[in-house]
Every structure is written in structure tokens, then in C-alpha cells.
Amino acid sequence: MTISNFISHLYLSLFLPMIIATTIFVTDPPPIYTPVEDITVNCGYSGQLFNQYDQRNWSGDINSKFTPIDVHQAAGGNTSVFKEAPHRSSVSQIPYTTVRLSRSEFTYRFNLTAGQKFIRLYFYPVSYPDFDRSEALFSVKAGGFTFLNDFNASVNADADAYEEETLYREFCINIEEEEQILNITFTPSRSKASPDAYAFINGIEIVSMPPNLYYTAPEDPLDIEIIGTKNPIRVENYTAMETVYRINIGGGPLFFNKDTGLYRNWDSYSFEKDYLDDASSRWSVIPVNPSVQLEFHLNLARTPNYTAPEQVYKTGRSMGLDATINQRYNLTWGFPVPPKFYYLVRLHFCEFEPAIREIGDRVFLIYIANQTAETRADIIQWSGGNGIPTYRDYVVFMPSGTGNEEKVFLYVTLQANPQHWKTKYLDAILNGLEIFKLNETNGSLARPDPDPPHPHPQEVIPSSKDLSKSRTHFIAVVAGAVSAALVVFSVLGLLLVFRHRRKYAKGYVHSSRRAANSTKSRGGSTLPSDLCHYFSLKEIKAATENFNDTFIIGVGGFGNVYKGYIDGGATPVAIKRLKPESSQGANEFKTEIEMLSQLRHRHLVSLIGYCTDENEMVLVYDYMSRGTLADNLYHSNNPPLAWGQRLQICIGAARGLHYLHSGAKGTIIHRDVKSTNILLDEKWVAKVSDFGLSKMGMTTASKTHISTMVKGSFGYLDPEYYRRQQLTEKSDVYSFGVVLWVVLCARPALMHKVEPREMNLAEWAKFCHGEGTLDQIIDCNLKGKIDAECLDRFIEIAISCIHDKGVERPSMNEVVRGLEFALQLHQKSIASNGDGGVSTEQGCASNESIQCISATIFSEVDDPKGR
């Protein structure tokens, strides 16, 4: 902590109590928003405690409706216990008075109304009787999402840049209408390395948020742009978020009792300044102007008055420039965040400079993650006028960079307009900022723990043997440490009471344990070299001329695919070289080999061999000269595929999936069916590829799904699997249904630069089907070239595959039979037309007949007689 920070903290600690005293006992105006759910649980406590700061009763979880369920309780085994927390004047008593701890799993169950919720977890990581703080290692899951994984509370607390004693985590999830019970499960990460690991929790808070405060409203036509891609995205209800930063830019801290009824904390000017790049900025703080009367316009600015406290919009930061100052100055904040996540960045604005009232008066640029977010940021244009708050949302993906960085910086930059003649004031302004981490496709929000810091002297507890040798020295150390601690607590104590909810994202660092996971054994005796060929690295380099870039035929997040030659140059092969840092890591590499080496089918790509020399991960496949299905449908110069070819390809891929689901090896769920994983050989035979995510399924009377983390590709991902984390073969059916629409429309599953509803092809297809406008999305190269009855059958199959509920989808066997029948109808049409089926006679589908098809298919599907 710098001297200036220490002085400011000292000042606040001396005078803040007096300020607080005047606000706690004076009647505050009622909150703007009253949550439907406002649940506060003081874990390990019996009865209720009234918190004077938030004016709420915190209920204990002992012998109450909040008592958790222990997995071993019924068997009389280990159960959770509750204990009192050590009292420290620097720590708020609620909810840190007591704690619940267990060395076995326990679950809190809450009956909630449907809707979006804040979930806040409170931790006081100290040593409790029989529970050493260093052994607190656990995971937390809720609503199908992983909030924390192998979470070491003491390491996180010790790494906190502000040396705070308590931890606080805030998450956002949606409770579905049909799932109004929320389970929050705490699971100790016990292993040989951590046999005494335990889980603990001091407080749980659940607060309903206004509909679509951070989620995209279904009726909202505006999507959020993914920075750097121009791709629109919607923050749907099946997304979970974690609050990483929430800052009142240029203003003081706004504690939970000063929020709009949502009990959020807004960090202060002193916290924000730690992330501000002083070297590149000439900035000024905009003070509070109490005379400003803000107007909240729900329809005009899309900013209800509960979005943020008025104080956020009445303070801010600007560069304080005018036209005589070099416009290259900017405002830049750098926020450390864990990489490999998407982040929602919300910027709050309010223009209350009296002279700025017209569009164009102040126009500036915004960059997020060093990429252009806005080339013309005009608050007056966005909000509708002076004194009207507004905000803008952006989504950005933060990669790990050139190496395996343990943290990366998410930069937010405001720059004065370089085209200074286009603006009246050369300046930029920001009033508030929020950053949320979005869950991965596997449902995880967990971030790695920081590296453990060196132990504090007062935390080093010697063994009894050491104690007997150096008792005097030990007492001196402890006494000195306690004295020092008392001095610090006396200065900072009251401030820490109110800062216990501060985010400490400044200390994000990957743990060595996560790094070790990425260097697990990549092969050896466990891989089935007896079932496919093992290549030496020398052979692989010879086949690709030492991985020459001119041999690259494909690129993905996993690495490069090369065209190589084996058998003395006689046999062309596809060689996939996985990067060590690839998300498709050692487990997927091993799964691919184990699966494909035992599977043989005309419509599955053949694995020839692999290589693991020198820690390489290389797979060798049959070469597919026609590339991927996607390559032949869109974003390429290849001629359009005829409808008959497309049907044959779909049937081949469907047969391959049917073999996986019901073949001799048992049920295998592919889990990543998409148009880029369907390859075509020189004869246009379709072959399903990429088995790195595959799972062996189970279907019995008592077990019909696999509970597993969600993996797959956006646009193709089964929404039911995403919500419930329950994988079945019907998840493959959904993904294949998306493939069918890709084939029919010649569009990617996720599309760029289109209207919001058109971003997701499956959802767009459903919408057009219901509206009778399917003619608008079908590939124009197919117009008038498909028999109406054949198209009717194909659309029926495609729609049935993408039903929201898996039980309503057909099996792959039914899909195969349906497509084969569609092909028969097509061939019959060709025979009757005698011209290759390209005529526009009455038998072929026109725009009008396609509309009739889309209007009648559902009744045909629902009515057995219609079949």
C-alpha cells in the first residue's frame, strides 16, 4: 500500500465513523426498488440478528428452514458443525459472528420465485476450533453452475491487495419458472494431498433483481456487440455471471445500504485510482453537484432509476481538456482479470455539464481491451438530453495472450476525438463502471486461486517440538505481531467494517495447482498403441516438412491441421497438432484416440495413428479432400452444393451418429456435432470427426443421462443440456438439427452483422417457421429446385430436432429414416421432371409454397394421423 493510500485510508478511518453515525440513525428515504426475495442467512447461528447497517434481520440456519442438508447425515456419518468466529473489532459482526463447517458435502436449499437473482457468499477465513484455516479447500455449485472450484479461502484472503480479513463473492443467475428450488452445495476438495480439507460459509444472501437489469430483455431489439468481432450477443437467462468490479468513478464509496434497494457495493475513487494509468492521462475528478436533478427515462435512455444510485451519475472523471490541449490525451484504466473468459463491461454516463446540451457537443472514442468499441460516443445522443443517465454494455473475450499468463489486463480507454473539428469540447467523461465475468460453456465461473504468499509471522505456528526449543522467541514474535496488529486495527478497524465486501480482483493469479494440471502425462502406456499406429516425431516432421506453414489446411483454437504424406509420400493424411495451451488438452487428446481407435464405420473419420514424443500431441487421420461441410456451404468460393448432394451428406452424417448412439460399443455421445466436424472425402461421403469431447452414455431404467460439465460449441449447444448439465444422446440430436438448418440455409449457426433475432440460426429458424417466413432464410441457390413434399419432410425433421425438450426430439435412427424418405421424394421428383430437378414447375417449392409448409408442419407433427 502506498503512503498516499495509507494517508487517505487513515483519514477515512478517523472521520468516516462520524459520517456513518449521521447516516445510520437518520431515517433514509425508502429504497427505489423492493426485491421480491430478500433472504439473509447467518450461517452457524440460531435465531435472528438485526443488522443496523442494512436494516434487515439475518436468520440463523440452526433448526430453521435454512438448515442445510448433509450427505452423510442419514447414515449417521460426518455432518456439518457450527462454531463461533473469533471476535475482532475490525470485522463486522454480521454475518461473521458464526460459521458452518464440514469435511463432507452439505447443501442449502431455497424455495424461490422465478426470475434473476443476486447470490452473495460471505467468508471469514480464520482458524476455528479443530479447523485450521489453511485446510479450507472446497467448491461451491448452485443452479447447475460452478461458482468456486478448489477454492482456498485463506490464500485468497492473504493475497488481497487491501489486506482485508473477510471475503465476499457476488453472482447473478436466473431461476427458471419450472425450477424454483435453488440448491447451493459446498463440497470439500479432499484428496491424498488434502485429507483434512473442509468447506465453510459464514453468510448467504439472495436478493431478487429487477427483470433484465443485466440480462437482455426478450423484447429488446438491441444486442451487445462482442468487441473486436462485430458479432452481436444476448446475455440470455441461461447465463451466470460473477461481479468482478463495480466502481463509482470519481466518487466516494457507496455501501450496500446506499444502493437502490439491491444491496450492491460501489467502490470508491481511491480504489479506482489504483487502476488508472496516470502516465498517459491528464484527468480531473468531477465533484458532486447536489443541485443537479437527474431525469430517469425508462423508454428514452433505457435507464430505470434503480440501475445505479444517483450519486454514481453525479460524479465522474474527465480529462478536463479544451481545444487548446493536444487531443492525444486519454483516460485509461487497466483491470486485472482471469483470462479465457467473456466479460460484460457496463459503462455508466450522465452529461450534466450545463454547456453541453446538443448532439455533437462532446464526442469521444471508447476502446475496450485495446479494441475499438465506439468511434462516436455521444452521451446526449444516447440519453436524449442533459442530466439524463444512460449506460452502454459491451462484451469482450480475454485470451491468455502469447503465453500462459496468470492474469491479463482488461483496459478501458476513453480518448478525445482526434477529428477535433467534429466536436465542440475535446474531452471524455465516465461516471460508473461494472465488469462481470460470464460463465464458460461448461457452466463454470471458477477462477484459480492466487499463489500463496509468504506466511505472516503471526500465522506461523511452530510444532510442539519447536515450541519447547524456542518458547521465549515464539512468545516474543507473537507478542510483537499482536501489538502491531492492535495498532493497525485501531486506525483501520472501523473502515474495514464497511469495506468487508470490497472486490479484490487486483490479486488474481493462477495457482500452481492449475498449472500442474496442464502438464499431465499425455500418453504413454495408457494410450492404445496396439489399436492404431504410433508415429515418431521424426516421422511427423518428415510428413509435414517440419510443420511447414504451407502445409496448413485448417486452423482452430486447438492448433493447426496440416496436409502431410506418409508411406514414402504415397498416402496423403491430415495431421492435427494440438498446442500445449489448447483448450482441447490432454484429456480430449486421450479420449479422441481411445474412441476412434475402437470405432470403424463408413461415416466416421478414421484415425491412423498418433504421436506424443517430446510432449507433442499429434493425431493422424485419413485425408478428406473436400474439406468440411461448412467449407462447402458458406464463407468460401466453392460452388454451391446441389440439394441431392446435401441430402446425401446429411444422411451419411446421421448414420455415423446413429452408429455412435446404438453401435456395438454402447452409447457414445459425440457432444460437439457441428458443420465443421463433418468432413467430406473425394466422393462427397460424409464422415463425423473430432471425438475429443465424446462421452460414453448410459441408458437404464434409473439412469437416463450423464451429469457433466457443459462442453460444445455455441450455436449448436443443446439449451436443455446447458441449463441442467444433463447430457443425453438427444443433445447430439439437437446439434445435428442445427446442422440441418445450416445445410438448408447455407448460413453459419452463429451469424455476423445481422438483426438480433437472426444471430442464432436455430432460434431464427423457429421464429420464421412460426411466422410463415421460412422462404426468407433458405439458401437462394435452392429456390425452385426442391420438391415441395421433399422440403416439407426435411423441415419437419429439422424442426423436431431442435425442440427445447430432449424427450420431444426424435432418435438418430428416426432422423436417418426421415432423411432417407426425403431423398426418395427428391429422386422421385428428378425422375418425373427428367431435368435434374432444377425446373420451377409447380411440383417444386416456391416462396408461397414454402410459407404454406411452415404454416402446416407443426400440426402435422403433433397429429399422429397427419403422419
Explain how this protein is built.
This protein is α+β, with helices and mostly antiparallel strands and 867 residues long. It folds into 4 domains: 3-212 and 447-456 and 495-507, Jelly Rolls; 224-438, Jelly Rolls; 524-622, Phosphorylase Kinase, domain 1 (2-Layer Sandwich), CATH 3.30.200; 629-866, Transferase(Phosphotransferase), domain 1, CATH 1.10.510. 24% of the residues lie in helices and 24% in strands. It has 17 helices and 40 strands. It has a 10-stranded mixed sheet with strand order 2-3-1-14-8-11-17-27-21-24. Strands 28-32-33-31-30-29 form a 6-stranded mixed sheet, sandwiched between helices. A 5-stranded antiparallel sheet has the order 4-7-12-9-10. The chain is globular, with a radius of gyration of 30 Å. It starts with a helix and ends in a 5-residue tail after the last helix. The relative contact order is 0.07. Mean pLDDT is 77; it is low at 1-27, 297-301, 322-328, 453-526, 699-703, 835-842 and 854-867.
